[in-house]
Amino acid sequence: MSFIEKPHVEVPTLDSKAGNHGGNLSKTVPAISNENENKGLVKQGVWLTVKEAGKLLGITDRAVKKNCKNEKYVTEMVNGNGGRQYRILLSSLPKKAQMKWRKEHLDAFDRGMSAAYASVDLTELPELYLRTPIYNRRKYDKYYPFFQSVGFFEDLKLPRLSELKELIRHWNEEHAMQPVGLKSVYKLAKELREKGVEAFFGGYGQNRGEHWSFADLKKQGLDSIVFGTFRKTFLQPSAPSIRQCRELAVEVAVRAGFPAADKLPSASAFLSRLYDDLEREFGVSGKAAAYRARHGLVAYERKYGHYLDRDDSDCPAAYAWVFDHAQLDIMVKTPEHNGLVRFWISGVLDMRSWKLLYYVLKTSVPNSQDIIDVYLGSVARYGVPNTVYLDNGKDYRSKDFSGRARKVRIEHDETWMRSVLGQTGVARVIFAMPFNAKAKRIERWFLKLHEGFERVLCEGYTGTNVQARTDELKQTIKRGDVLDYEDFILMLDLFIDDLNNKKTDKRNKLEGLTPNEAFSRFYEERPMLGQEVLISLMGRTGNARKIGRNGYEDIEVSKRIGYKAVYWGQWMSVWKGKKEAVYPRRDLTQPEKAYFFGEDTHEFLGVGYLDFFRVRSLAEAEGEQRALRDAWASVKDERKFVKHAIEVPSAGLNGLQVFQMRLSDRKGLRIFGNGKVKEQLSLKSRSTGTDGCPAGVNERDDLNERIIKAEAERIPDSDEWDI
Length: 723
Fold this sequence. Notes:
This protein is α+β, with helices and mostly antiparallel strands. The chain contains 26 helices and 19 strands.
């Protein structure tokens, strides 16, 4: 590279290999001396009192004296009215203080500076260029040719503003790779007047060698405790600042005996080493690991974590459904609630086509009954899915809907088959990971609903949190300037229809199809359910109990209606006295009818009707008399069936026939099932209960037998007994 020729001073030409490569020569070449240690500011013969210096610096006189003792300024001692006093050299103060003094004494300062500027010798540039590292020469290479071309070095002044703008425009057209700006030119001109030609060079690396390295700390045996303090403090979930972490490390170093706290590595050096150590020790991104420690798993997954790209090519439409619910961030006016409410929406999304199949709006927090309504509403339209993807909330884990509860292991034949999903034939149920919105596609659908519907309507918009709720929105809600619920529902239906018919990007998984088009193209027929089956599954599940005298007693319905609720169906006659229990499904808002299932087999048993045997005492009205007749007819029918069941002849012997058989054995006869006795061969006498007893006992037995025969002869021959 070559210097631009200057008409006044000849500057030697340097080839590309000349100069200080990498900054390594700066340690051997002596630096330019600066008597005032003031970064090139020209020494002025202006001496200030302590009070004047404190006013310029914005600190107290006591602080100025303390700095003088610590030799932060160039000072001298003079005799004053109060004795020996400090005098501080103006050029040794910070640049801001000097500029403040200059504004107050502009004329005198400019006269002194003019003489100083006139003495600036540009012949120092070649030597200064050789002493400067390459990375600090870039500023010179960019700006020196421009300042030379505009004649700045003749009187250290820039052209007028309009002329300067035009010069900059032409310069940038010819030097597109290194353009200059108006503000940067004015700033550099000011620095040249204050610092001289050194302003052309960058100041990077000026503090090199002033701080200890971590290798030096290791030699002193302090590396582990000092850096370990920074590492442990920085990797905390409270996320303290890097400056605070370094200050704690400095404090620990001082307590451990480090001689100079200001010689420790900078905060950026601590952080760079932390990242390098994490990468070397664990083979992961140090920056990502530190972000995980300071901001948590959710933030880490959002910024650095991997994600799974699901391929839906093997998933037909209506094969897998995703369920979830959310509260809408918009207030709606409803007459039945006499005020404003925020609706809850429970919906089901088809995984393949991203079509919203069905949804239910409720003013109360959704429960498992709402989920059942959404599911069965979708089943009635599109058939039974193979796979259902559910949220991890307790309403989805209820035994009514999925047969699963938190911290309860699913049993194949008991809990699972009892559920609505099991009874309708769903083959697979997947529960999403807790607090993982990315696992459910319907969460992104809710985001579209929020961005494209709730925020666009604005009227009654509450915001996602308190901070997002502006004062104007609060006043709007307070005045009641919100949508009526009828208009709101119509607008919501229109928006959902628009989403289902909105074209997607060709790079999208739907390949430019709308959700409705994708659903039609990829749909495969699913099993459908009859209306009676759907009605039987719409209700909530009651407790499993045995059938009593009058039927099934429902405790939950009893609490709602205020008296003992008993369901009865003719099929329950068979279940009286059984050990097996049954459970009902019924609508708690209309509990007149319930559908019953076996607890063990989950087989549909029949329908039960509430208060079947509950009749009025007087039964004056026609309906009451009809209920009485039906109940009494059922009672008589059951009596008739029971009597018939016990009177039906059957094979076998009764008790009398058994005793006759025993008597025949004693007399050598055999009695047959028809009651006839037939002669048999004489049998040897067998011993009776009294055989082998003393003679007196046998005699008493004979006497008793004679008495019994005598009494029997006195009984008259009659078909009936007189009572």
